[in-house]
Design goal:
- The chain is α+β, with helices and mostly antiparallel strands.
- The chain folds into two domains: 4-149, S-adenosyl-l-methionine hydroxide adenosyltransferase, N-terminal (Rossmann fold, 3-Layer(aba) Sandwich), CATH 3.40.50.10790; 165-261, Elongation Factor Tu (Ef-tu), domain 3.
- It is 22% helix and 29% strand.
- β4 (80-85) and β5 (88-93) form a beta hairpin.
- The protein is elongated.
C-alpha cells in the first residue's frame, strides 16, 4: 500500500500554507497519499487540535503518518517531535497537541527533530510546518526509521485536559468541542454515564438549561427539540434537531454540564 500522510492544521485554505506542506511532502515522497483531516481548526487552538486528532486517528490504516501543525509557538524554543504510538507515527510541535493520543496509546518512541538532513536547507522561523515538520513526515513515508530524525525526546509537553468528575450524586463535566453543526460535545463518556445511570432516572443540565431526554440519534428528537445523545466519539453531546444547539443556548467550549439523579 502507498504510504499515507494525514494532515491536521489551523492553516485554513484561503492562503498557500496547507498547499505548501503538500508540495514539500510530495517532492520528497512522490508515492505518498495525502489526506486532509481538516485545515479549519481555530487559529492557535492546540486543545481543539488534540481533540480532533484523538477523534479520528484510529480510523486510518495502520502505519499512517499524521502531520499535525497547530503551532502558536512557531520559531520559539519549543521543540519539534516525531512519535510512534498505537501503530501510527506523528510529527508535531511539542506543545501538547498529541496529549490525548498518548493518553490512549502511550508512545513507544519519541524523538526531537534535530537531524538537519531531514529538514529543508533553510528553515523559516515562521513556517516550520513547511520546512521542518512536512519534510520529517515525508521522510518517514519514504521509509526512514523514526530514530533517524533525531535524539530521544524524553518527557514531552502535556495539556491539562478537563475530565468529568463523578460522585455518588452527580457527574460534572463540560463542553470540550463544538462541531460545525453546532452540536455541543462534552467530556462525559458513555461508560461513565451508563454506570451512573444504572441507579435510576437522571436530569441533564447544560449551562443551567435542562435537556429533556436522551435519544439514540438526532432524528429521534422532535423538530426544534433540544436533546442529548452519544455521538460518533461515544461522548455525551447536546444537539438541536434542525438547528444549532450552540446558538440556541449561547454555549461553547467550557460550558458546564451537570448530570444528577431525579429526586
Amino acid at each position: 500500500m502507498r504510504p499515507v500522510i494525514a494532515l491536521l492544521t489551523d492553516f485554513g485554505t484561503r492562503d498557500h500554507y496547507a498547499g505548501a506542506l503538500k508540495g514539500v511532502a510530495l517532492e520528497i515522497c512522490a508515492d505518498a497519499t495525502l489526506i486532509d483531516i481538516t485545515h479549519e481548526l481555530p487559529a492557535h487552538d492546540v486543545m481543539t487540535g488534540a481533540l480532533e486528532l484523538a477523534a479520528c486517528y484510529r480510523y486510518f490504516p495502520a502505519g499512517t503518518i499524521f502531520l499535525v501543525v497547530v503551532d502558536p509557538g512557531v520559531g520559539s524554543a519549543r521543540r519539534g517531535i516525531a512519535a510512534e504510538a498505537g501503530g501510527y507515527r506523528f510529527v508535531a510541535p511539542d506543545n501538547g497537541v498529541l496529549t490525548l493520543v498518548f493518553d490512549e496509546t502511550p508512545p513507544r518512541k519519541v524523538v526531537e527533530l534535530t537531524e538537519r538532513r531531514y529538514a529543508r536547507p533553510t528553515v523559516s522561523r515562521t513556517f516550520e510546518g513547511r520546512d521542518r515538520f512536512a519534510p520529517a513526515a515525508a521522510w518517514l513515508a519514504k521509509g526512514i526509521e523514526l530514530t533517524a530524525l533525531g535524539r530521544p525526546a524524553g518527557a514531552v509537553h502535556r495539556l491539562e485536559v478537563p475530565r468529568a468528575q463523578t460522585s455518588s450524586e452527580s457527574i460534572d463535566g463540560e463542553v470540550v468541542r463544538v462541531d460545525r453543526f453546532g452540536n455541543l460535545i462534552t467530556n462525559i463518556d458513555r461508560p461513565t454515564f451508563e454506570k451512573f445511570a444504572v441507579s435510576g432516572a437522571l436530569t441533564i443540565r447544560i449551562g443551567g438549561t435542562p435537556v429533556a431526554r436522551v435519544v439514540s440519534t438526532y432524528a429521534d428528537a422532535a423538530a426544534g427539540e433540544l436533546a442529548a445523545l452519544f455521538g460518533s466519539s461515544d461522548h455525551l453531546e447536546v444537539a438541536l434537531n434542525g438547528g444549532r444547539a450552540s446558538d440556541a443556548l449561547g454555549a461553547g467550549r467550557g460550558a458546564p454540564v451537570h448530570v444528577s439523579r431525579v429526586a
